[in-house]
Specification:
heterodimer, A: 422 residues, mainly alpha, MetI-like fold, three-stranded antiparallel beta sheet, B: 426 residues, two-stranded antiparallel sheet, 1% strand, globular
Chain lengths: 422, 426
């Protein structure tokens, strides 16, 4: 900024507030602040006048009143007698659930598609391009509604499973029901002794990390490369499995059933003995709305992630992979040891914003009737109590908190992998 | 010890390339079957493509264009797949919503004129004088779509003329800054108090106009384009201002800009649309009411401008500091340096992001269906609910998806063209 030297001793004049660069920014800022405060005051004044006219002062007591409606998808205990605040919590958890699942699926699909799009195989690269262009150029709301409609159309209805010559049968050796109401999977029942399994499982996760550190130290000293992936997988599964059988199979599975009729074995007898049993209303129901929403959000977001991944890989200088090749590294090691770690730095910032977008887009759940926080707090609670102002305010604060937390966590991660410059 | 170097005296005869090194077989070997694993993958991919075509082509190619309802498609033995009659039957609704039939030339004309108006912005080979039409178009477009007396839009347009004249006259008398402030004030006063009165008087004296069309009748693709194009046109300038505010040295302006941008980017658009549909009335004086479409446009603009600001900030940050310093060294003031040096470069850098935001905005216009406006997505439910087309899914969704796809895909292609054209490096 130009800072013209003013002749010393020149007295202050009012016009200097506008024309003197030393004071002008002050003047502008004060005017802006005054205008901002005046604008907010005007809006608030209007709001109080309108609320007073409608005899509705801002009031958050409705949160502790009974909600009076049911939520079919819930992760915590909830009945229609629970409070509105509880409904808010249920909705919030549903939002987080779909966002969490969506982010994981989107990342997996997105990275695979992004890498495959750079494949030397012409037809694979083309297929991926087609996928990306189709999915990211059509509104996500349309995808959500479309997938929901497709699932509802193509999957068998519950009544198809009934009767002697049922049109549809259960999948995976009669343990899973795939219907257009949702996917029903067996529900575990933990009997005594299953706690030990849990401890063993936690211990094996700790062991995996310990092994990983030991393996990389071992590699640095001796140059030996162990098949770490398979060993880690074995550590994860085998001890728990052994304990499971040693303890006498302490986990029962409740098989899914439709309206009293459930799983049947090959002879038409219901499973009632052994580790499988059925109850009247049993199994875990993964609802169609959740599946459609999750799938649509992740397929849509994956197209963007794939583009980010492609851009990140292309941003790495070709010399890097050539140098790695000259060192004698194989193609997949060049990718995993040289190119991807560098590309990650370019990929992570857009990845963060895609995660944020997915989370915010999950608010479109309302279109398929999935009860996320927009559906409970901003939907039914708002309509039943008529507290539009309070509900939307809380809704915005909820989303702001989620967004800011995600970007904070991801920024910490971003800083940890960022190129350290001196 | 020297040796006579070997020098070839005559050229070898040209040989044909070895078989399998030319044409399609070479291309296929290099691109599809370069190794065993590659061949397997290619085979699988080809299978996928063939399966898709096998499933969808017969489904799509059905002589069902004339069907009056879904029942006819089921009953006709020749039709064993898509029932395209719905598109023919509902095409008008999907395009115009419930816009009166007799008046539908107006949105069509508005759309055609819009293409003319944005042409000089998109392609710089066209004569610059066309920009004048682009400047007038917003008022013309609003008038064509909503109708009514022509004097309203004309008088709003007159506000700019008034501002310009006041600025010109006062600039010689009272200095640039004061002239500008007075001109802005005069324009605002004219819009707030003058326009309504004067245009009513003129309408009374000289009624020139076309039939008014209520916002409730807007729908279909026309509604999406109306909201999308207004949002796009308004969010770019707002985004530039916000980006400059965020980069500003002035603390208060920076804080206000950052707060606004982060707040808007932290909440989903649907909450802002809820605000537009149920809450905005609370914040306005009791007797003031807005049109719902206008409220939605305002909210969509605000939403997109925050994203736009971030994109442009990226462009500003990517410019080397030397550019700012050089502009200062030339003695340009802040606005001159921004207008002549910084912005042209920063905007060029951020073209992909800007167009990406535009595309996002256009796709986000579908969200208005959730607050009850009848854009194509909103029409799906009402069409599925009719007796004739009860339960139709694939044809309708495919067609609407295709409609959006054509627009967004051409936008992204244009952005690539622009990037290439403006590229100054080699």
């Amino acid at each position: 900024m130009a800072m013209a030297d003013q002749p010393a001793g020149k007295s202050f004049r009012l016009s200097m507030l506008l024309y003197d660069t030393r004071y002008r920014s002050m003047t502008i800022q004060i005017i802006m602040l005054a205008a901002f405060i005046a604008g907010v005051a005007w809006l608030l004044d209007n709001m109080y006048a309108n609320l007073a006219a409608a005899n509705k002062n801002p009031d958050f007591t409705f949160l502790s009143a009974p909600a009076g409606y049911d939520i079919n998808q819930r992760l915590v205990e909830y009945t229609s007698q629970s409070t509105n605040a509880r409904a808010w919590l249920v909705g919030l958890l549903n939002t987080l659930l779909v966002a969490f699942l969506g982010c994981i699926i989107a990342t997996v699909i997105g990275i695979s598609v992004g890498v495959l799009r750079l494949s030397k195989n012409w037809i694979v690269a083309r297929l991926m391009t087609v996928y990306i262009e189709i999915f990211r150029n059509v509104p996500v709301l349309l995808w959500i509604a479309f997938l929901n409609a497709i699932l509802s159309e193509t999957l068998p209805q519950p009544k198809d499973f009934k009767g002697e010559d049922a049109e549809a049968t259960m999948s995976l050796w009669n343990t899973v029901i795939i219907s257009n109401r949702g996917v029903f999977i067996p529900e575990p029942v933990f009997l005594s002794g299953s706690a030990i399994m849990l401890y063993v499982f936690i211990a094996s996760i700790v062991a995996i990390f310990a092994f990983g550190r030991w393996a990389s130290k071992d590699q640095e000293t001796t140059g030996r490369i162990l098949p770490t992936f398979w060993i880690k997988l074995a550590i994860l599964i085998v001890p728990t499995l052994i304990v499971y059988f040693v303890m006498g199979q302490p986990v029962d599975w409740i098989l899914p059933a439709f309206e009293g009729r459930g799983a049947f074995d090959a002879n038409g007898e219901p499973y009632t003995k052994g580790i499988f049993r059925i109850d009247a209303d049993s199994g875990i129901n993964i609802r169609r709305s959740l599946i459609a929403l999750c799938l649509a959000l992740s397929l849509y977001t994956a197209a963007f992630i794939a583009e980010a991944v492609r851009a990140g890989i292309m941003a790495i200088n070709k010399g890097q992979s050539e140098a790695a090749g000259a060192l004698g590294l194989r193609q997949n090691r060049v990718m995993s040891l040289v190119v991807l770690p560098q590309a990650l730095r370019v990929i992570i910032p857009p990845l963060i914003s895609q995660y944020l977008n997915l989370t915010k887009n999950s608010s479109l759940a309302i279109a398929v009737g999935y009860m996320d926080v927009t559906g409970t707090l901003g939907g039914i609670t708002l309509n039943q109590t008529g507290r539009a102002l309070e509900c939307i305010l809380l809704l915005m604060i909820t989303y702001l908190t989620i967004s800011l937390s995600i970007s904070m966590v991801m920024n910490i991660y971003n800083n940890s992998v960022k190129l350290k410059e001196r | 010890m020297s040796q006579e170097p070997y020098v070839r005296t005559e050229m070898l005869e040209e040989q044909p390339a070895p078989l399998g090194q030319t044409g399609i077989s070479k291309w296929m070997r290099e691109n599809l079957f370069s190794s065993v694993s590659n061949s397997i993958i290619s085979g699988l991919a080809i299978l996928v493509v063939v399966f898709m075509l096998y499933e969808f082509l017969p489904w799509m190619l059905q002589p069902s264009w004339g069907a009056e309802n879904l029942r006819q498609c089921y009953d006709d033995p020749n039709i064993n797949g898509a029932c395209w009659g719905i598109i023919r039957d509902r095409f008008n609704q999907l395009m115009f919503g419930f816009y009166p039939h007799a008046e539908q030339w107006r949105p069509l004309l508005a759309f055609a004129l819009m293409l003319v108006a944005i042409a000089p912005v998109l392609f710089d080979k066209l004569p610059r004088k066309m920009m004048w039409f682009s400047a007038v178009y917003p008022f013309l477009g609003v008038w064509l779509l909503w109708g009514g007396s022509i004097w309203g839009p004309l008088m709003v347009l007159a506000g700019f003329v008034i501002g310009y004249v006041v600025n010109k006259v006062l600039a010689n008398v009272a200095g640039n800054l004061i002239a500008l402030i007075v001109a802005v004030l005069a324009t605002l006063l004219w819009w707030l108090y003058g326009v309504g009165y004067v245009s009513e008087m003129l309408t009374g004296a000289m009624p020139v106009g076309i039939a008014e069309v209520d916002s409730d009748n807007f729908g279909g693709l026309m509604l999406s384009i109306t909201i999308g194009v207004s949002g796009i046109a308004l969010s770019l300038p707002l985004g530039i201002i916000l980006a400059l505010g965020r980069q500003s040295d002035m603390f208060i302006i920076k804080v206000l800009s950052v707060g606004f941008i982060e707040f808007i980017r932290g909440v989903p658009l649907i909450t802002l649309l809820f605000v537009a549909s149920v809450l905005l009335g609370f914040f306005l004086p009791p007797d003031v009411t807005f049109d719902l479409i206008l409220r939605v446009i305002i909210m969509v603009t605000i939403f997109a401008s925050a994203y736009m600001a971030e994109v442009i900030r990226g462009g500003l940050a990517a410019l080397p500091t030397g550019q700012y310093e050089a502009a200062d060294a030339l003695g340009l003031d802040y606005w001159q340096s921004m207008r002549l040096i910084i912005m042209p470069q920063a905007l060029k850098i951020s073209i992909p992001g800007i167009v990406g935001t535009f595309i996002g905005l256009f796709k986000d216009t579908t969200l208005v269906s959730i607050i009850g406006l009848l854009d194509p997505v909103g029409l799906i439910v009402s069409i599925q609910g009719t007796a004739d087309w009860n339960g139709v899914v694939w044809e309708l969704f495919t067609f609407i998806a295709l409609m959006f796809w054509v627009f967004t895909f051409s936008m992204s292609r244009y952005s690539m063209y622009l990037e290439n054209k403006l590229k100054t490096t080699h």
